Amino acid sequence: MFEVQNLAPDTDTRSPDTAVLLINLGTPDTPSPRDVRRYLAEFLSDPRVVDMPAWLWQPVLRGLVLPWRSHSSAKKYEAVWMPAGSPLRVHTEQQTRDLQSWFDARGKRVIVEYAMRYGNPSIAAAVTRLRANGARRILVLPMYPQYAASTTATAFDKVAAALRKVRNQPAMRFVNHYHADARYIEAMRRHVQHYWDVHGRPDFASGDKAVFSFHGLPSRSTELGDPYYSQCLQTGALLATALGLAPEHFRVTFQSQFGFQKWTGPSTAETLAEFGSEQVSRVDVFCPGFTADCIETIEEIGMEGRDTFLAFGGKEFHRIDCLNEAPAFIDMLGEIALENMAGWSAPARWRGGRSTEVFAAA
């Protein structure tokens, strides 16, 4: 431990030099086909997302995928677009404001910003803004509870790229995952239980089902060592236990499959069709891997998933919102951030007529 002498008095008027950067996946700027195409081009050109040689994939992407998918996806974005913008961006902005208020209420001098891995606001722009505001220490907190190379790792890649040409770099720390954190599980338990308090709990004894749907991942990623699949299964099991569900009451599934390669399963769409054909009276779907509602939860689950379940004979479909701005989730983010920033700095104090700021080695 070493000390840095500071003649300035110890007051809270100093600009904060520690920051938390929340990172989510991304969204187009508008639901127009042009903006959706631009967003998808960036997203699907990431080699961590599509693990194919660029010389082979790019002609397919530019010539086949983007012309077709940009228009079909634009219609889906239009169906969920909010007056203030994309649901993912609206919720992420509010989470950022709420987390900033959480730190402020506890007297913590911390700047909170957010960025999107694809689209705007970009990670590079957010890092530049934080540095301009005096941040010398930045904790990167991805909004992905489960670690995947195609989400968490690529966010870290982009942060590193943003700092590549910076001579005086800030100190950086990264949160890898929190898929089994007891506070994350408890936040979800409270959230789901509150929904059931309002809308009634499914009659599991009579055959009603809960579905915990996670974003899918190519099976090859798991074979190469990605822990995402096992972490999703663990999250689902812990949440089910917290909610008092028996194994036959719930199923962990995976959605958003793309392309022709093998993906992790079981498929959410196929599971909903199966439950419908079995005349299951009620299905409640919750997406533990998404911390903010977006096109995948609102449209894919709440619209397409509902239609599939009902078309195959199901009776009652419920989509439970993501955690979004749930107070317990904001508490969890704040506590995880403080734990990961531990040792960066201790409060300044007076010593011998001078203010001494003590920094502990991380």
TrEMBL record:
SUPFAM superfamilies found in the cross-reference section: Chelatase
Pfam name, any one: Ferrochelatase
Positions that bind Fe(2+): H215, E296
Entry keywords, A to Z: Cytoplasm, Heme biosynthesis, Iron, Lyase, Metal-binding, Porphyrin biosynthesis
GO cellular component entries: cytoplasm
Cross-referenced CDD domains: Ferrochelatase_C, Ferrochelatase_N
Reactions catalysed, as given in the entry: Fe-coproporphyrin III + 2 H(+) = coproporphyrin III + Fe(2+); heme b + 2 H(+) = protoporphyrin IX + Fe(2+)
Coiled-coil ranges from the UniProt annotation: none
Subcellular location: Cytoplasm
Pathway membership, UniProt: Porphyrin-containing compound metabolism; protoheme biosynthesis; protoheme from protoporphyrin-IX: step 1/1
Family: Belongs to the ferrochelatase family.
NCBIfam families in alphabetical order: hemH (TIGR00109)
Biological role stated in the UniProt entry: Catalyzes the ferrous insertion into protoporphyrin IX.
Name this polypeptide is given: Ferrochelatase
Organism: Paraburkholderia solisilvae
Gene name of the record: hemH_2
